[in-house]
Structures are given as C-alpha cells and as structure tokens.
Write a structure and sequence with these properties.
By secondary structure, the protein is an alpha/beta fold. Helix content is about 35%, strand content about 20%. Bound molecules: flavin-adenine dinucleotide. The site of flavin-adenine dinucleotide has 35 residues, from α1 and α17.
Length: about 500
C-alpha cells in the first residue's frame, strides 16, 4: 500500500483504526500522549489491587467479535469471556430488598411480575422490540457514514420511523410498558452509558435493553485492559508501530491537505492520512489553526456533553458478601438525578450510583481475602470541585453505599482510596469540560447530527472514537474505526463489512 497513516491517540477507536489499516497494508504509527494505551479504558495498580479505570460492562459481544473477524482474528484467542450470572444487582434507595437481573427471560419476567403484576409479559414484548431495533440499527444504521440528511431520513426511517421509535423520547416510550418507577429505572439506566437522560434520549435507544437482557453481560478475564492489550497486539502483528509518551502538538496542513503531525518535542511524523482519536473538540481547536477548523469554538459551546463522573477506586480490607460483580443503586427521585447533571449542575445530594466489584469474578484484581471496588457517580461535566469537596463527597458516597448496599462500617474497611473526577478527565485525555464520555446522545447529536468523521477543511484528515459516529461505548468505537476505513475507501454500504 505504501501509504502512511498517523493515528493520534490510542483509545479504542484509534487502536481499532490502526488494526484495520495495518491489516490492509498501510504503514501505521499510533501516537499516544500517555504512558498507557487504551485512552479511557485505562488501568493502574496499587499494592496488589488492579483497577480498570473506565469501562467495565462488556456488552454486545457480537460487535466485538465482528471487529476481530474483520482483522482475521478469533476473539477467543485473545479474550476469555465470562458470562456474569446474575448479570447485575439493583438496590433501591431506602428499601431492604434488592433484585437481580439474570438476562434470562423467564426469571426476569417473574422478577418484574413481583414488582408490578402483569409487567412480565410487557417485558417480553419490550425485549422483542429492542431486539428488532438492535438488528435494524446494526445492519442498517450504525455501520453507515452519513453525508446528507437524506442518508439518515431515508425510506426506512420515513416509513418505519414510528416503529423504530426515532422520534419519541425514551422515558415516554418506557412508560407505555411499565408504570412503576422501579421498572422504569431498570429499563432507563442504560441511557447513562450513552451520556444522556431518558427524558432526552430518542426511544430508539431501547435497543440497549437487548444488550443487557437478551445478550447478557460479560467480563473479559484479566479485566477490560485485556481488550486493549489484544488491540495493540493485533495492530503490531500487522506491522503498526504503537508509541506511548508521544504527544501530538500540531496537525501540519499544507495547501489544504495534512502532511503529518508534529509532536510536542518537535519531531515531525509524516503521513498521507491522519486519523485523530483525540477528543474532537481538542483536535479541532488545539491541534489545528483557525483556518483549518471544521467546527468553531462557538459550535462546541452549544454542544451538550455527556456527564463526567465522580469515581472512587477502593481497596477494601475484606470480602463484601452483599455485592456481586455489577451493582446499581437507584435513587428515589430519578428526574432530580438527571437535573443535577444537565439542568442545575451540582454534586448530587441523593445520587444514583454504580459499584463494580471485579474481584468477585476475577481473583487477580485484589489481594487474597480483599475486594476491589470501583464506584461511579455520574455528575455534570464542567463542574469545578475543590479538593476539600472531593474528600467530603467521597465520605458521603461511602456512607450512602454502606447504608444502602448493607456494608456496615465500609469507611473503616477502606485501605486504599483514589478519587478521579472532572479535572482528571480533562488533563489525562484532553476531554472537553472533563466529560467522562464525550458528546451526549440526544437526538440532535445522533447519526447525521453528530460531528462527521472527516474534516471538511483539511483533505485526508479523519476522526475516530466516541466523539463522532456512531458514538460512545467500547464496541461502538470499534464501529467508528470501521466507518473511517469505509470513508477512506469510498465504501458507502450500510451493513458491517464482510472483509477489508
Ligand atoms: C468511567 C467510564 C466508564 C465507562 N464504562 C463503559 C462500559 O462499561 N462499557 C463500555 O462499552 N463503554 C464504557 N465507557 C465508554 C468507553 O470507555 C469510551 O466510549 C471509549 O473507550 C472511548 O474511546 P475513544 O476511541 O473515543 O478514545 P479515548 O478513550 O477518548 O482515547 C483518546 C486517546 O487520545 C489520546 N490523546 C489525546 N490528545 C492527544 C494528543 N495530543 N496526542 C496524543 N494522544 C492524545 C488520549 O490520551 C487518549 O488515550 C466508559 C467510559 C468511562 C470514562
């Protein structure tokens, strides 16, 4: 091929693109500013505890498998996937009883019936719809590059729009099936994965329930970082050079065309194609001069960012019997939760939150007899939090978890604590407003309305990752890599590629 590709950033989108282009025969160099690869799917260790810093839900295994097959690999040669059973546990604030979701239609319907008589049948109908939606999305929408509004509002959307729930809101849609708050919360919590709220998300995202209820929840043994190691290995096996501690300071543009990138130390890496996996706001406003920008500062100011997160990485002195691998706590006032994030940004007084205990499944993530906990509270992006506020909020969260997840004396059991939040996301990943996830997925930031994966001003400059199409999520960023590949090779099909 003899064409050189420089990929800025080794997030999942960047590594995914590196693998595809290297496999096709391009000369690929990945330039990552951090010491670790993987971007937000980062990892760190502390005295026998190994913390996956970002993603922990391995959903939609078929989408990962598709990527591995495309680069000529068997996923089972790289990842040992454990299906979690139960899939996750839900605690409801102020209530003694928790429930488990098993991703087994009969068991889960019975659980629903016990909360709201008759809702088990509705769950079955709902999941049929989300399966349909998932199949249409993955075969006709997600793997397509949109160039004009007519690409999206095509015959299928116009005739089936109602059935595909493109135009209604998630909460309204869910409310037609389930009347009780608890069941609505269960069907809506995945909107947080997309960085949006059920009151804003288009109802087509009910396809998320196909992932957790029908397909099940998985864990790659060794942790999520095993996926990053696999992606690096595949890119390198195909000849890519994957460099860490290599921060790009500038995308060099000559006569409207990029010729490569310049690193902070002054080194020039020449390239025929540049694919940026860095946050799109950062790429556009910090790596390009004004005349080369497709999206102005004003454009970004008007965008709605996905939440940031208040995260605690905790080393716990002993095992915690009340927790399974994935645990969710839902607050009573769901709408206020989302308002605290999107309308009146503040550290939520009564947050919903997530606790991951990977050491329940994977003994290697904590020393013997101890537990590894990852606590995530979604909070507004752009929030400024002092060091004192961080400490006192961490205590508050620990007390809340102790009460609601039945772990008496939790604070005293903590032997290691690291707080990670808005300013860390901003400095570690150049994330706009310190968002954990990037651009939110409301209707006006989805598909045709999401920033495109190529520059309109600079020839041969492309974008990959959560900021462009299809959007947020580990497997979704692998799709974004495929979309760049399609774009560069002029492939306009809507279906996933069968070969490179
Ligand atoms: C806390 C958290 C939990 C999550 N949970 C899940 C989950 O359970 N399941 C799931 O599927 N998804 C989850 N996600 C989302 C998922 O992790 C992301 O959508 C995905 O990893 C983003 O990948 P990306 O390709 O956009 O790259 P990013 O991860 O954004 O990486 C971009 C890379 O570019 C680098 N970079 C930036 N600027 C430069 C520069 N100038 N020079 C060189 N390099 C640069 C950065 O250092 C970074 O490594 C979670 C995310 C977070 C933060």
């Amino acid at each position: 091929m003899n064409k050189r590709v420089a990929v800025i950033g080794s997030g999942i989108g960047g590594l995914g693109a590196a693998g595809l282009f290297a496999k096709k025969g391009y000369e690929v160099t990945v330039l990552e500013k951090n010491a670790n690869f993987g971007g937000r799917a980062n990892v760190f260790e502390h005295e026998g505890f190994r913390f996956d810093m970002g993603p922990s839900w391995y959903l939609a295994p078929d989408l990962f498998e598709h990527y591995f097959n495309l680069v000529g690999e068997e996923i089972s040669d790289h990842l040992e996937l454990a299906r979690l059973e139960p899939s996750y546990r839900i605690f409801f604030k102020g209530e003694k009883e928790n429930i488990d979701i098993h991703s087994n239609i009969e068991t889960d319907s019975a659980t629903f019936d016990a909360i709201e008589p008759g809702s088990g049948n509705n769950l079955k109908k709902y999941l049929k719809q989300s399966e349909y939606q998932y199949n249409v999305a993955t075969q006709h929408f997600m793997y397509k590059n949109y160039d004009s509004v007519f690409d999206f509002f095509n015959k299928r959307v116009m005739t089936e729009g109602q059935k595909l729930s493109v135009f209604s809101k998630m909460h309204k849609f869910v409310s037609k099936f389930f009347k009780t708050r608890k069941l609505q919360q269960i069907m809506e919590y995945t909107m947080v994965f997309l960085g949006t709220s059920p009151y804003e998300a288009p109802a087509l995202y009910n396809l998320m329930s196909h992932m957790d209820f029908n397909q099940g929840v998985f864990y790659p043994q060794g942790g999520f970082y095993a996926l990053i190691e696999a992606l690096v290995a595949i890119a390198e096996k195909n000849g890519a050079e994957v460099r860490n501690n290599a921060e790009v300071a500038e995308i060099v543009v000559e006569n409207g065309r990029t010729t490569g990138v310049r690193l902070t130390g002054g080194e020039f890496v020449s390239a025929d194609l540049v694919i940026s996996n860095a946050d799109m706001w950062f790429t556009e406003t910090k790596l390009l001069d004004k005349s080369s920008r497709t999206y102005s500062e004003r454009y970004w100011r008007k965008k709605i960012m996905a939440p940031s997160a208040f995260i605690l990485y905790l080393g716990i002195k002993e095992k915690i019997p009340s927790l399974i691998h994935h645990n969710l706590l839902f607050s009573k006032d769901w709408r206020k939760n989302f308002d605290d994030i999107y309308k009146d940004p503040c550290l939520p007084a009564e947050p919903s939150l997530y606790v991951c205990a990977p050491s329940v499944t994977d003994a290697d993530t904590a020393p013997d007899g101890k537990e590894n906990l990852f606590v995530l509270v979604p909070i507004a992006s752009g929030l400024s939090i002092t060091e004192d506020e961080k400490e006192s909020y961490a205590d508050k969260i620990l007390d809340l978890i102790a009460d609601e997840m039945r772990i008496p004396g939790l604070r005293e059991k903590v032997e290691y604590q690291r707080i990670y939040t808005v300013d860390n996301f901003a400095s570690d990943y150049h994330s706009f407003r310190g968002s954990a996830l990037g651009l939110a997925h409301n209707l006006w930031q989805t598909a045709i309305f999401r920033p495109k994966n190529h520059s309109k001003k600079v020839e041969n400059l492309f974008y990959v990752g959560a900021g462009t199409n299809p959007g947020i999520g580990t497997q979704i960023c692998l799709i974004s890599a495929e979309l760049v590949y399609k774009r560069v090779h002029g492939i306009t099909s809507a279906a996933p590629l069968e070969s490179l």
